[in-house]
Amino acid sequence: MKRRTLVSSIALSVAAQFAIGETAAPVAFDWFSYEGKDEVFQTPPPEGQFQNPILAGFYPDPTSVRVGDDFYAVSSSFTFFPGLPIFHSADLVNWEQIGHILDRPSQLTGTEGLAASRAIFAPTLRHHDGVFYLITTSVDAINNFYVTATDPAGPWSDPILLPWIDGIDPSLFFDDDGRVWVTHNGPPPNRDSLYEGHRAVWLWEMDMETGQPIGDGKIIINGGVDLSQKPVWIEAPHIFKRGDWYYLTCAEGGTSIQHSQVIFRTKSLDEEWIPWDNNPILTQRDLPADRKHPIIAAGHADFLELPNDEWWATFLAIRTYGEEGFYNTGREIYMLPISWTEDGWPMILERGKEIPWQLDKPNLPATTKSVPPTTGNFTWKDDFDSPELGYEWMYLRTPKDDWLEISDGKLKIQPKAVSLNELVNPSFISRRQQHATFDAATRFEAPAAGASAGVASFIREDHYFYCGVRLTENGYEAFLEKAANGPAEVVSSVKLPKLKPGQSVTLNIVTDQAEVSYSVETPNGKTVVVATNEDATILTTTRAWGFIGAMMGPYARLEK
């Protein structure tokens, strides 16, 4: 499916936007291709089973909801625009992106000046009386807000601000009596942190007509399951109801190797929340670090009740490689069934068990609709034959300039004088790296003097690669620019003999886990190696830190 409003919503022509100041001709990209080759995906799941993760790549902090026979899932998106990708499924296995919740610049403001791992944190998606609600936090920007829609594909409303929430990870709960409640991660009692990572879960009643709280909020969980053990980063609280019990499920331990999911319950929202003695109900932190194909950092779960009374959980986890636990793919969405004890406690996965890569599908009718793959090894190509960008593509920060257009079967980028290490919107459009081992390629026209063009692979402002082509005094050259925890530098440059302006070149990227190689095919069929076996771990969260995964795609830049 294609994005309906993104290119047109900014509403300026390329020519008009760049009529003043230093300019270069737009660079035309013919296509962009991507092929995943991860070892763990080499054997597809057998009939009746599905593949974990259900959404591979940078789809962190999942939230999910069932509406009748339909299921919807959303992940956080940080400073990328459009924000909050939303997916639909009829069988919980095949997921199709139907849009972005924040697809207008007016909905995602304040990203300029923010690092890539700020802005839109963990969302919660809920449905009540025919209306979808998405509540989230835009950290260091407009903070907590919610938006609404009657159609999950949009349009969604502009943000309704909730300035009275002090914290992150807000969640809505619509009770049977018509009252509406908000939970969120917030400061501990009297803002008195007893240790690093000491947080609390807050509960407020909310008036949906005014967006204001009813009365004062209160802390319902201080620290976590057992404050004496100094639990850290209690967050992502979700309330749901089953039978006579209210349940509160939260992430605990931080979204890294100590991540876990815990559960509490109560008979009344006015009473104390009791933790289960058998917490956590999901974690991978107690498994051997040297196991083959490890899945780590599991937590941040949301619960789904199926029409047949089955329960399933969507949650985030991480695929790593190498002894140091590298991962370029960020936090991804996984799914497991929930079992219930006789006395009414839910268990996602018993401690000591590994998250299965493949398992039996939910007991739901199989979908017959063909949807683009979201997991496993697949081949994908965008020929830019639609006038609007596909949902796979995102901008880094909300664009204020209309520097991109699609016409005549080409993606055309007007180069801006913005480097990837700046906290503004560069002329860079990117898709997720969804595999540790993959090939990618694009074909584009050699840029005019004063500009460069190629492919950027980005995870943080000081951790990226940019392989590009530019015209120098001595003719065209291909180069590799690298930033690894510091200023960018050109680590390789090679001449491209006989290349002329406007001729097309093909840029190839081959990544095998920790190593990446770049080459350029010239119009005369010659392959020019730009760099081999470069250190791809600079694009891992392990080295770069942050909350996103590696992003890659066409980039054009005015050379300063």
User: Distance N terminus to C terminus?
Assistant: 38 Å
Helix coverage percent: under 10%
> What spatial form do the alpha-carbon principal axes imply?
globular
Number of strands: 40
Alpha-beta content class = mainly beta
Mean pLDDT: 95
- pLDDT < 50 runs, ≥5 residues: 1-21
**Rg over C-alpha atoms, rounded to the nearest angstrom:** 24 Å
**CATH superfamily of the largest domain, called what?**
Glycosyl hydrolase domain, family 43
Question: Would you identify the CATH architecture of the largest domain?
Answer: 5 Propeller
How much of the sequence lies in strands comes to: over 45%
Describe, in plain words, how this protein is organized in 3D.
The chain is mostly beta strands. It has 2 domains: 6-33 and 377-558, Jelly Rolls; 45-360, 5 Propeller (Tachylectin-2, Chain A), CATH 2.115.10. Helices cover 2% and strands 46% of the residues. The chain contains 3 helices and 40 strands. Strands 1, 27, 29, 30, 32, 37, 38 and 39 form an 8-stranded antiparallel sheet that branches. The protein has an 8-stranded antiparallel sheet with strand order 5-28-31-40-33-34-35-36, with no helix packed on it. Strand 38 and strand 39 (527-535) form a beta hairpin. The longest helix has 5 residues, at 6-10. The protein starts with 5 loop residues before the first helix and ends with a strand. Mean pLDDT is 95; it is low at 1-21.
